[in-house]
Amino acid sequence: MAHEHGNSLKLAVPRKVGAQAAPKQKHGQLRLSILGATGSIGQSTLDIITHNPERFAVAAVTANRNAHGLADAAIRVGAERAVLADAEGYGLLKDLLAGTGIGVAAGPEAVEEAATCDAGMVVAAIVGAAGLAPTLAAVKKGRAIALANKECLVCAGSLFMEMADRHGATILPVDSEHNAIFQVLEARNAEQVEKVILTASGGPFRDKTLEEMRSVSPEEALKHPNWDMGQRISIDSATMMNKGFEVIEAHHLYGLPAERLEVLVHPQSAVHGLVQYRDGSLLAQMGTPDMRTPIAHCLAWPERIPVATQRLDLAALGSLTFEKPDGLRFPALPLAYRALETGMAATAALNAADEVAVDAFLRRRIGFLDITAIVERTIETLERAGDLSGCGSIFDVMNVDGAARRLAEGFSRS
Ligand SMILES: NC(=O)C1=CN([C@@H]2O[C@H](COP(=O)(O)OP(=O)(O)OC[C@H]3O[C@@H](n4cnc5c(N)ncnc54)[C@H](OP(=O)(O)O)[C@@H]3O)[C@@H](O)[C@H]2O)C=CC1
Ligand SMILES: CC(=O)[C@@H](O)[C@H](O)COP(=O)(O)O
Ligand SMILES: [Mn+2]
After folding, report:
1. Which atom of ligand 2 is least distant from the CA of 272?
2. Does 342 score more than 80 pLDDT?
3. How many Å apart are CA 339 and CA 387, to the nearest integer?
4. Is the ipTM of this complex over 0.85?
């Protein structure tokens, strides 16, 4: 939470984010548990590990249903165990890993066991609210968490950060903007910060009119101009709901109120995040759009390791441009700010309704503009019914998540 005293602003950063000791190592190696190893973040993480075999060992890798991808991942990094959330794939995974010595398990409890096994750091890279339970389980064990799953903070940010604090879990932000801000804030006096700025690419429809956006296809929406990411976050980038989630994420990570969290559209995605200090200095972190940089920063923190990304060539880029976001064409962004003001029940509902609506769009059951319209209608309906008034426990979060999903599913059919 933010604490304001006159003009000075206290951030949660020094206490919570990256505030604890560096993750525990065994024999000079950091043992990792990678949740969501088959996804875009998971694969970038594996790339860093295979290039630094002396530095990292892998205790566990997990996925949802993709047994082939998970078996490949486990073999590639010599994981001790591989775990599928969906128990149906257990037999196939066991066959694929027969004779390797890699342990095999399946089911949600097995994913939680992987999250709480004897690892120094958990890479939280499951997509969606499904990542909340295993990541929280790791938090309760006081693990260092390389947090990609922003939904943990959108759904349950206050509870999540309180638990991290209580159990001494170190939260290292993987999300590129938050990682940028973490890098720029590190070792600085947070009281001297005026505001932080998250950059947004503007997505594939940055220059389209509302009328043009009405008929865009899932294929067009999935074509992010700069980043290669999973489906859900790619669609969220196209609606700019992703940036709304990131404002909520930054609020919980850095304890800043909404009015000190700004979004700036920057189509080149070269500047990832900025911190404005009270003396007028504006500090930025820059790099090519490649998630291996922020992931490596978290895995090696507080050190830095070599990563073979393409380097940012400013002369080749020529110019960097910035513009204010357009809340009329991208109403998801102001909607997320409003949900943040309403509270955790509203942000949990925002995520749940969005998960349902994005899925409906990808299945061609609704149009692109319907995504945000359905999320908004879901939140308004819950608010009118008095269902967004309080959220004091994970049980409450799951209840509002369920209610929002049911409403959004209904709205996606009508
Ligand atoms: N991709 C990026 O560049 C960035 C991503 N993030 C965040 O990181 C997270 C992961 O994103 P991304 O890698 O793009 O997503 P992907 O869709 O590429 O990968 C998702 C991973 O989660 C697993 N998974 C999906 N559903 C479940 C479930 N119900 N239970 C357990 N595991 C599940 C998938 O397994 P399977 O393969 O079997 O389906 C896969 O391993 C998201 O929260 C996203 O917002 C943040 C910043 C950047
Ligand atoms: C890579 C990353 O961190 C994504 O969250 C990215 O920011 C998405 O791009 P947008 O800026 O278009 O949302
Ligand atoms: Mn991001």
Report:
1. 7
2. yes
3. 13
4. yes
The domain locations on the chain are 25-173, 180-317, 343-412
**Cα of 270 from ligand 3 centre, angstroms:** 12
CA of 400 to the centre of ligand 3 (A): 25
Q: Is 151 in the pocket of ligand 1 (CB under 6 A)?
A: yes
Q: Which atom of ligand 1 is nearest to the CA of 126?
A: 22
Q: Which of 16-20, 178-182, 331-335 bottoms out in mean pLDDT, i.e. has the lowest?
A: 16-20
Residue 43 Cα to ligand 1 middle (Å): 10
Dihedral Cα 141, 142, 143, 149, nearest 10 deg: 90
State which ligand 2 atom lies nearest to the alpha carbon of 240: 13
- What is the value of pTM for the model shown? 0.96
Continuous segment of H or E residues that includes residue 146 = strand 144-147
State if residue 230 touches ligand 1 by the CB under 6 angstroms criterion.
yes
**129 within 8 A of 355, measured Cβ to Cβ:** yes
> Strand, coil or helix: what is 288?
coil
**Measured distance CA(345)–CA(397) in Å, rounded:** 6
- Tell me the percentage of the chain whose pLDDT exceeds 70: 94
The answer to whether the CB of 176 is under 6 A from ligand 2 is yes
Q: Is 85 in the pocket of ligand 1 (CB under 6 A)?
A: yes
Question: Domain 25-173, what fold?
Answer: Rossmann fold (3.40.50)
* Alpha-carbon gap, residue 405 to 410, rounded angstroms: 9
Strands (E), 22-138: 30-35, 56-63, 81-84, 103-106, 121-124
Evaluate: CB of 200 within 6 angstroms of ligand 2: yes
CATH topology of domain 343-412: Rna Polymerase Sigma Factor; Chain: A (1.10.1740)
Establish whether residue 180 lines the binding site of ligand 1, counting it when its CB lies within 6 angstroms of any ligand atom: no
Residue 250 belongs to what H/E stretch? helix 241-254
Give the residue among 331, 58, 24 at the shortest CA–CA distance from 205: 331
Q: Which helix (H) or strand (E) holds 124?
A: strand 121-124
Q: Which residues are annotated as a binding site for NADPH?
A: 38-41, 65-66, 149, 151, 230
